[in-house]
Write a structure and sequence with these properties.
Elements: E1 4-5, E2 31-42, H1 51-63, E3 67-68, E4 72-83, E5 86-88, E6 95-106, E7 113-122, E8 125-130, E9 133-138, E10 146-149, E11 156-159, E12 165-167, E13 171-181, E14 186-191, E15 198-199
Parallel strand pairs: 9-14
Antiparallel strand pairs: 1-5, 2-6, 3-4, 4-6, 5-6, 7-8, 7-13, 8-9, 10-11, 11-12, 13-14, 13-15
Length: about 200
């Protein structure tokens, strides 16, 4: 017979609706405040007066910074709404707790304009990071007046008059033209071929 092992959750706080207002350039919203579920598996050595805090800490450790193709990157857990009765795993002694929580997730979509940091520059294009997500900009999606200069230190894309130079660690504004969604990751393709895109001064 499967037994249940419950813990009190009276200290759980209600969700904060204010975090829904986060915006990015281009009047797009890539941050969402959503309800999620996760199961925490605990060893019997954790059973005791600090059980509730242990479940909370394991939730933070196991979900923050992770990514699912459906919801995106989990940036931060904001509230824990409910910790259900734990189910003792037969033959092991471990207890599995179902947890319902709310979190800020980062999920960009095609067509959104975002700021990114350049991490690598080479002849094929620019590699950038948009928070936790990687984004590649092909040289064919960089304005034709900007050419790759391999002899520059560091290598860069620049205009003939060097009025605009894009190199590693620069902040640029790009448009997401496509995303590839895997089970545990999201990768984006970007473009600088539009008005108001490029180096952020």
């Amino acid at each position: 017979m499967v037994k249940e092992f419950a813990i009190s959750s009276t200290s759980l706080k209600p969700a904060d609706p204010d975090v829904l207002s986060t915006k990015q350039p281009g009047n797009s919203n890539m941050f969402y405040h959503i309800s999620l579920e996760h199961e925490i598996l605990l060893h019997p050595r954790y059973f005791g007066p600090n059980l509730l805090n242990t479940v909370k800490q394991k939730l933070f450790t196991e979900v923050e910074g992770t990514c699912t193709g459906k919801y995106g990157f989990v940036i931060a857990v904001t509230t824990i709404d409910n910790i259900g009765a734990g189910t003792i795993q037969q033959g092991r002694g471990f207890v599995l707790y179902p947890v319902k929580y709310r979190a800020i997730v980062f999920r960009p979509f095609k067509g959104e304009v975002v700021d990114a940091v350049v991490t690598q520059v080479n002849k094929v294009g620019l590699f950038t990071e948009i928070g936790p997500m990687s984004c590649f900009i092909s040289r064919h999606s960089i304005p034709s007046e900007m050419e790759f200069d391999p002899n520059s230190n560091p290598p860069c894309y620049k205009t003939v008059d060097e009025d605009i130079v894009i190199q590693q660690d620069d902040e640029i504004r790009l448009k997401i033209v496509g995303t590839r969604v895997d089970k545990n990751d999201i990768f984006a393709i970007g473009s600088l071929m539009d008005d108001f895109l490029g180096l952020v001064s």
